[in-house]
Amino acid sequence: MAATFGGYEVTALVLDVGTAWTRAGYAGEDCPKAVFPTHYGYLPEEESEDKASDNQAADTDVSNIKKPKGKYYIGDGEINLWRPNMEVKNPLNDGLVEDWDALEQIWDSALKSRLHVDPREHPLLVTEVAWNTREHREKLIELAFEKYETPAFYLAKNPVLTAYASGRPTAMILDCGAAVTSVTPVYDGFVLKKGIIKQPIAGDFINEQIRLQFEQLNLSPVPQYMVEKKNYVDPDLPANAILRNRPNTTASFHKYMLTKVIHEYKESVCQLYESNYNEQIISSRPMKTFEFPDGYNTSFGTIRFRAPEILFQPSSEFIIPSPEPTVDTSACVGIQHMIFNSLVTCDIDARPAMMSNLIVTGGSTLFPGFVDRLYHEVAPKVPGMKVRIHAPGNIMERKCSSWLGGSILASLGTFHQLWISRKEYQEHGKIIVEKKCD
Amino acid sequence: MATSDVRDILQISRPAPSAEGTPKKSTKPEKEKKPGLCYFDKEVTTATSNSYYVTFVDKGISRELFQLIGGAPPVAFTKPTYKQKPNLRLKAAHWELREFVHPGRTDQLALLRWTKDINSNITEDGLQEFQNLEVVQYTDEEYHKHLLDRDWTKEETDYLFDLYKRYDGRFMIIYDRYECPGKRRTMEDLKDRFYFVQRKIIQQRPGQDKAEIAKYNYDKNREVDRKRNLCMLFTRTPDQIKEEESLLEEYERIEQNEKKFAKEREALIKSLAFQDISTAVKRKRSMTNGSSAPATEIVTPVISVPASESLPKKSRRASASSVGTSAVVEAHPPVEHVRREKLPPGVIVRSQKIPQVKQGAITKVSKYLQEAGLGIRPSMPTENVCAKWIELQKAIVSLHDLKRHVEKQEHELKTKKQLLEKAKAATGGSSSNQNW
């Protein structure tokens, strides 16, 4: 395979830590070897330890990372297993790393217990969000060279890698993932920073909205971990299931498991209407049935179109006000406006190329009808231009596009002179990351 | 279909396995060797087919089977191929993790790569270095001598040049990353400054190739204008674009019409010129003959033809002047309307324009005309005369029609009257019968 695209493999590793999923694998391959949730379970070692000291442990210096205070559970098999008092957390916020201890655990898990490699032997390419700050980047390079002692390191931006994955150096990237929806113009393999537009209406927000919708419908889904045995019941009849007694379940674990149910509902039932939202037409669409873990099953009609509609119309018509709002949606606009606003920041000469290379990526773009709707909304906004949307049909490709781009990049012969080597790091210190990775 | 299937169907006993295996082995490679180009080909193939033939007969294959394969090798006969067995006796290829240094690196970073052949050096395919962009760099002295600018400090110019080198001259990105405190630069500002510096240095330095200057020509105002125009295009509304498209279409149509007109006019002028010559010749001839009457009859209508052409020309001009306004849409149809009425090309005598009388009525009409002491055509076809003539013709035709109609009616009346009388007589008779 290497010969077909002028690759030159150096057994590099590619690590992509996203808000929902972490992907790790070898450069040059067409899909990551390991994909696991970025959420992690955390169990304080001593139960007598109270929360205050727990927080203190998390706040301690990065250099003190050798001895984690509690136990980390990482991976699908670990995190979904019920343990009393296990908290479920996410190390990222807004795409930026907040909990460095946890990130380290995730790297450990990816490189050592999943890929089973010695990081000292492999160059490492790590992805980052386009709006990553200087401090975060410096911390990442420090972690790679100081703790993992990689021979070479590179930090690449997600949108650039997505553009590479679809073979276009100039493109407009719409990335609608779990925590953030972002639009980033990429020109000749460089992110145009002035054009980055992001907002927190993405997959997680839609999950939250669906939860509120369920509340309005008086539905209270029971997560899988509470169900011991379920029996078949006819549609719309109350569930007939034997529930487990799970004492000492943390709120975060319950929420995570609940979100999993909602996520499944979202993936199997929700849909975007292909043209302007019209409840009357939508009501003639077929209903879809969903069975909850406890066996309760019912059909969903127009409501299954309402939650994804928020992506295009984040107005009070569709957003249900939350009693404890996690994100501020007052300044949010629809995806089509984000694209237009980002386009306007680009130079007029670059705009046609951007619009004819509109790449769609991220798990939240997998709603049926998303691409049709996007075209329907974007094309009239730029009437004089040709709009071409590139959305890989392969689900894996859509979910892991930045990893894939990293895999392509790190196996290119020309790329090997861009690695930051250990020697360079020792000579210049961590500031070199700003200089070499752009 | 394998030969074994054929055998099963025909219930032929299985031949010795050696009979199948060996001959094919010997012939197949030869066939594959066929080079396909040389003249010698034919002989080779016939030879192999013969050997096929011979070997099968020799090995004692049953006749039925032989008929299936016999003669020339059948087209669909393919040797069953099996998955190649792995050659386990071969020694495994030796792969080795080997270090290599990218030629473009300055720090001797040794990366590891799996290579198959230990003896060969690591190939450098796909290890191209990045080409650095050529930038003419100024010195301090040069800067102070030639490049001083009120708006640009040396620090800022240095910064611009740094960025230029860093991003390989991609101004789109330079503009994106450009951060100078207290100044807002447009991309045109940056380009203008950069190209200005380049031009200036090349001009001033003794050793520089002066032809290089052309590479760095930059007209800032023109660029600004161009971009402003592009922006205007970008901000059009869908309605405006639609209107523009329809106007363009209209314009194209008008232009095509114009071309057609021009062509036709040319043809007309040509034929007129030809007519002029021929009439001149005729006139000369008639003058020598002494009779001037037919000459005038031909010459007068010639003048009238351009006059009749003047109407469409005028309306065409009117439509052409209104291109670009919405009036075009309304102004256009009349153009086509006029065109449809157009006279056939060539010279016409006015008297020809007088509509022909129906075929059946010609003789009658001419009879009437003769009665009035006139010819078939007006002898002096002026416009007034022609108009009157047409009127007269029409009147004659209608008179004729009416006469015929009257005659017909009278005849009918007569017959009806006769019928009535007959009927009266009959009813009278029948009533008398009843009385009986």
**How would a textbook summarize the main sheet of chain B?**
2 strands, antiparallel
Identify the strand order in the major beta sheet of chain A.
Answer: 3-2-1-9-10-21
Strand arrangement in the largest pleated sheet of chain B: 1-2
Helix content of chain A: 25-40%
Query: Strand percentage of chain B, roughly?
Result: under 5%
Structural class computed from helices and strand pairing of chain B: mainly alpha
Reported for the largest beta sheet of chain A, the result is: 6 strands, mixed
Computed over alpha carbons, the radius of gyration of chain A is: 23 Å
Mean pLDDT of chain B: 73
| Inertia-based shape of chain A | globular
Compute the gyration radius of chain B: what is it? Answer: 51 Å
Termini distance of chain B?
109 Å
Q: Report the order of strands and helices of chain B.
A: HHHHEEHHHHHHHHHH
- What's the shape of chain B? flat
Please count the helical segments of chain A. Answer: 16
Mean pLDDT of chain A: 90
Q: Count every helix of chain B, treating DSSP H or I runs of 4 or more residues as helices.
A: 14
Which structural class should the secondary elements of chain A be placed in?
Answer: alpha+beta
Report the uncertain regions of chain B: 16-56, 290-339, 431-436
Largest interface comes to: A-B, 38 and 36 residues
